[in-house]
Amino acid sequence: MRVQDVYNVIYTHTEGEPLCIIYSGVPYPAGSTILEKRAFLEENYDWLRKALMREPRGHADMFGVFLTPPSSRDYDAGLIYIDGKEYSHMCGHGTIAVAMAMVANGLVARDPSGLTRIRFETTAGLVVAEVAHEGDRVLWTRFENVPAYVAAQDIAFELPGYGPLKADLVWGGNYFGIIDLRGTSLRIAPENGSELSRMGLIAREEIRKKVKVQHPTEAHINNLNFVTFWHEPTIEGCLYKNVHVFSAGQLDRSPGGTGTSAMMAYFEARGVIGLNQPITSEGLLGSGTFEGCLIGETTLGTVRAVRPTVKGTAGMLGTASWTINREDPVDAGFLVL
Description:
- The chain is α+β, with helices and mostly antiparallel strands.
- Helix content is 19%, strand content 40%.
- The chain contains five helices and 18 strands.
- It has an 18-stranded mixed sheet that branches.
- Strand 9 (149-159) and strand 10 (163-171) form a beta hairpin.
- Helix 3 (92-104) crosses helix 5 (257-269).
- It is globular, with a radius of gyration of 19 Å.
- The two termini are 28 Å apart.
- Substrate binds at residues 92-93, 252, 257-258.
- The active site is at residue 91.
- GO terms for molecular function: 4-hydroxyproline epimerase activity.
- Its EC number is 5.1.1.8.
């Protein structure tokens, strides 16, 4: 055992979905863009991602974010999202949580009005959050996400045991393959987690075979990582219940922030909802909701897109100062799949 560098983190959850916020210990190159910062992490600090996301400090479903300095005065901070397997372009449950944590822990100056605005730089684009607070209480976050759009509809594929289905490919900060489970026997519930995970990975591979993924304006965004299953809600007043399957088969416990953005674009394209029509989304656990709204139209290059906002709340779980022995293969992080 020897003295190691120390990395300070904050732990939160958003409707059950965890977040490890890594806010110290990484010497990002001065003046670097968010893409350059991610490349720097991938080349020099990917071991830190693995050590904090994986066992013994994390677990198979841990999610995290590197909270970085801004690259210019146009932003207040940068967000680089991670899990035990890879990096994500954006994360809504994470944005809700990190914005509230920044206000609660003094990482950003509070606006005297009780509504603090934070401009985040992500690898998906600009995300603007507003955090409500009153006295020593931090109440909620609402953020305007990057523009969302439907890239493809009615992608036919076969899901073993559940017959022929169709998926829509939708961008909402990440690309999602959205699949309607109504009419099948597969239900979205924690007790069906293993089956949902297995079917999500199969569906993702089938969709990847059928469509080429490429963002209209961001050349670096060309991957499908998320599959969303949805059916009727179990909470009164919700438009739907869904679960997002991603990376190595992890299940988002929350309704999903980028997922709610994609789902609103999906429903708007099919005429189910309109602009400026608030909706409520239900997640895997059936115990909490997000509020969403499409506040307008825009374009991504020549592609029509919509402007999603998502509102939710997160809870503080604790803080930690981690030391990591990179010479110990167990201490450096491992996964049991």
